[in-house]
Specification:
Number of strands: 17
Shape: globular
Helix content: 25-40%
Number of helices: 9
Structural class: alpha/beta
Mean pLDDT: 84
Strand content: 5-15%
Length: 342
């Protein structure tokens, strides 16, 4: 996963009387568990048996699991603070950076708002202005906060290069770009299109990730490396999706209206892939690296090539028995290595 470089604030902090959060220092801006994957076309993974009296104990157990999930959400921020303190012990020169980025904040959403505001600010766009905007969005939309938690867990679980939650939070630009998009999308839905597009532009400039604020993105998203990812206005991405670098979810020309791909839950899209037009990638499908997809891909199948073709053929494609976005398996469709040797 590519990392992004952070410039620490070095000026003396002063109270910002114009901020909606006066307690926040003013500094010169120039300077899952995953969401439950319950889909009927995954009978080998999730039971779809109707509820009956004999399932009462299972229901009680399910409620207990939900409670455990809530407690785990509360523990995530505490875990991140523990990781930050451990990192400071190893690298004391980062103590100020870690304190201002993590340890001085009372919640994950507040820390995300602060970190993004510093990343996306410039000499004419104040970090305090962005912080107030991001924090207001997070405070009024708890679904976004939950999505942030699912996303950071997704990165930690699926990317072997991610050594900690703090590592993801501070350095993984795919994660940061996704959270900035969630704010931009909320603004887009509120009709604040100019501000939403401004955030899109800053994210593109800073993180090299271009996601139109109109695009709808689910929870548990991994943008691995993320450089060169382009997602169009009417694209829809489900939950627990993994997308690698240089992936385009684009249109096919100058058509207007609903013109971008729809990506189902649990999909894995390999590096350098282009999915073009209003096509549907079924739940649990896998798209091989470098593919160009112009037609629908059935659920739980593998599509590779330019133009993309289904492994096993269109009439009887090979069905995947695992969720590819979680396994991150890019090569199981290759029966023999000699098949790909020229």
């Amino acid at each position: 996963m590519a990392a992004c470089i952070h410039t620490c604030r070095t000026e003396t902090a002063q109270t910002n009387h114009l901020s909606c959060d006066p307690s926040r220092p003013h500094i010169d801006s120039s300077l899952y568990k995953y969401a439950k994957y319950c889909r009927s076309n995954f009978p080998d993974l999730v039971s779809c048996i109707p509820i009956c009296l004999n399932q009462q104990n299972e229901m009680v157990s399910s409620f207990a699991d939900d409670k455990d999930d809530e407690e785990e959400d509360d523990d995530l921020w505490l875990k991140m603070k523990e990781e930050a303190r451990s990192d400071i012990e190893q690298e004391p020169i980062l103590s100020s950076y870690y304190y201002s980025s993590i340890l001085s904040h009372e919640s994950l959403e507040r820390a995300v708002a602060n970190h993004l505001s510093i990343k996306l600010s410039n000499s004419t766009l104040s970090s305090n202005t962005l912080f107030d905007l991001f924090l207001r969005i997070f405070s009024n939309d708890k679904e976004i906060v939950e999505a942030i938690k699912h996303d950071i867990r997704a990165v930690k679980e699926r990317d072997p290069a991610c050594i900690s939650y703090v590592h993801c939070f501070l350095n993984f630009k795919g994660f940061l770009a996704c959270q900035a998009h969630r704010v931009a999308h909320k603004l887009w839905l509120q009709g604040r299109n100019i501000l939403a597009l401004l955030i899109q532009n800053r994210v593109s400039e800073v993180f090299a990730v271009d996601i139109h604020p109109g695009a709808r993105i689910g929870r548990g998203i991994l943008l691995d490396h993320a450089t060169g990812v382009v997602i169009g206005e009417t694209a829809v991405i489900g939950e627990n999706v993994s997308i690698l670098h240089n992936v385009t979810l684009g249109g096919t020309g100058k058509d207007i209206g609903d013109r971008h791909p729809k990506i189902g839950d649990g999909v894995l899209i390999g590096a350098g892939t282009c999915v073009l037009g209003n096509v549907r990638i079924g739940e649990g499908a896998k798209i091989g690296a470098g593919s160009v997809v112009l037609k629908d891909v059935p659920p739980r199948t593998t599509s590779v090539g330019n133009p993309a073709r289904l492994i096993g053929g269109k009439q009887n494609p090979v069905r995947l028995d695992k969720i590819p976005s979680l396994t991150m398996d890019h090569t199981s469709h290759i029966c023999e290595w000699s098949d790909y040797v020229i």
